[in-house]
Design goal:
With 405 residues, the protein is of the alpha/beta class. It folds into two domains: 123 residues, Enolase-like, N-terminal domain (Enolase-like, domain 1, 2-Layer Sandwich), CATH 3.30.390; 242 residues, TIM Barrel. Helix content is 39%, strand content 15%. The protein is built from 14 helices and 16 strands. The strands form three sheets. Strands 5, 6, 7, 8, 9, 10, 11, 12, 13 and 14 form a ten-stranded mixed β-sheet that branches. α5 packs across α12 and α11 packs parallel to α12. It is globular, with a radius of gyration of 21 Å. About 2% of the residues have low confidence.
């Protein structure tokens, strides 16, 4: 799906002298690609031939975001792509109704693409434009599953075999509003199994995935403390974020949240409530432009950044570019081999996999211009021809009532 103009000069003439100033570049074409397993990519082309890539997607709502990108691209035609801050304002505030995951994700992918263009045009990696690198490598973690302790141990061993030193696991599957003894014990047993494999020098983060009520989170968090989780992620759904301060005061384990928060304004209350780790998603929370501001806000509260990223290579590269320029950056999620990746993998869409290679559990600083990856455009176009219609699972309790996935 594409939005384009035939002659960018015509748009410039209509837009007046302000548009005529700047880099001399003009945006001439915006295309979106629905690529398996569950992603949406955007390609932004300029009249100079410089192309930027972004990843605007809400998992399970990719087609809806695609329409939002198409509408926002009307604002970008003929514009100077290097005026990133101004275009971000235009995209986020150019309508009376603002915010939400669909619009924020559409903006996020386009913002990533604009930063990619800027870096390529100037011949530098994006983190150089963000102030330069403050670290040489970023620690990575991978996701592990398994419904019983034996499966958890096997999955963790596989992640350690590829060089990672940290993993994240779900605390549970479907969880009753007030967990039974068996349900609570199962959570503890799984984390205990993870710790037994990892030993004292590696880390396990435990993802509650918004499946726990406050009552369950209060019961489980203290029971996990002996296993020293790296952090407890999303202990409650984001609409109950006003309760998170009670949990941060109850446990010594760091509390993390933020994958379903989309702006500085939404992060402020949870930062004030005492979370230890902020997890904005570079494909949801306004892209590189907004996440850099979230990172600065988090730093005021002595909170670390660990962006959510169970997505594709462009989102991951965007996270890493922010990480290389952000002092309070803790660790980075990545989804190579994650169970969602059916029919395609993260590295299937890049020509050179070397920049995302794990070295002692880290990714070394990306040095190529822009986001630091060369996208395999033919693979992307072929994948878009297949498309996908991925949807989030729907769960129910034994009594037929809706259950949080």
């Amino acid at each position: 799906m594409a939005t384009e103009i035939d002659d960018p000069a015509e748009v410039a003439d209509e837009s007046g002298p302000e548009l005529a100033s700047g880099s001399g570049l003009r945006i001439t074409r915006v295309e979106t690609f629905l690529v398996p397993p569950r992603w949406l990519f955007v390609r932004v082309e300029t009249d100079s031939g410089v192309v930027g890539w972004g990843e605007p997607v809400v998992e399970g709502r990719a087609e809806t975001v695609r329409t939002a990108v198409e509408q926002l691209s009307e604002l970008l035609m003929g514009q100077d792509p290097l005026r990133i801050a101004d275009l971000w304002q235009l995209m986020t505030k150019g309508s009376f109704y603002r915010g939400g995951p669909i619009l924020s994700s559409a903006v996020s992918g386009l913002d990533q693409a604009l930063w990619d263009i800027a870096g390529k045009h100037l011949g530098v990696p994006v983190h150089q434009l963000l102030g330069g690198h403050v670290r040489d490598r970023i620690r990575m973690y991978g996701w592990v599953g398994g419904d019983d302790p034996a499966e958890v141990a096997d999955a963790i061993s596989a992640q350690l075999a590829v060089g990672l030193t940290a993993v994240k696991m779900n605390a549970s599957g479907r969880m009753s509003p007030i967990g039974s003894v068996a349900e609570i014990d199962a959570v503890v047993d799984r984390v205990a199994a993870a710790r037994s494999v990892l030993g004292p020098h590696r880390d396990v983060a435990v993802d509650f995935h918004g499946r726990f009520t406050m009552a369950n989170a209060r019961r489980v968090a203290p029971l996990l403390e002996p296993f020293r989780p790296f952090f407890l992620e999303e202990p409650m759904v984001p609409e109950n974020s006003h309760l998170i301060g009670e949990l941060t005061r109850l446990t010594s384990t760091p509390i993390a949240t933020g994958e379903r928060l989309y702006s500085r304004q939404e992060f402020l209350p949870v930062l004030q409530a005492g979370i230890a780790v902020a997890q904005p998603d570079l494909s949801h929370a306004g892209g590189i432009t907004e996440v850099m501001k979230i990172a600065s806000l988090a730093e005021i509260f002595d909170v670390q950044l660990a962006p959510h990223c169970p997505l594709g290579p462009i989102a991951l590269a965007s996270c890493l570019q922010v990480g290389f320029a952000t002092p309070n950056y803790l660790i980075q999620e990545q989804s190579i081999g994650i169970h969602y990746n059916q029919g395609a993998e993260v590295l299937d869409y890049v020509l050179d996999r070397t920049p995302l290679k794990f070295v002692d559990g880290n990714v070394e600083r990306l040095t190529a211009p822009g986001l630091g990856l060369e996208i395999d455009e033919r693979a992307v176009r072929d994948a878009d021809a297949r498309g996908h219609a991925w949807r989030s699972p729907t769960w129910r309790h034994d009594n037929g009532a809706y259950a949080e996935w």
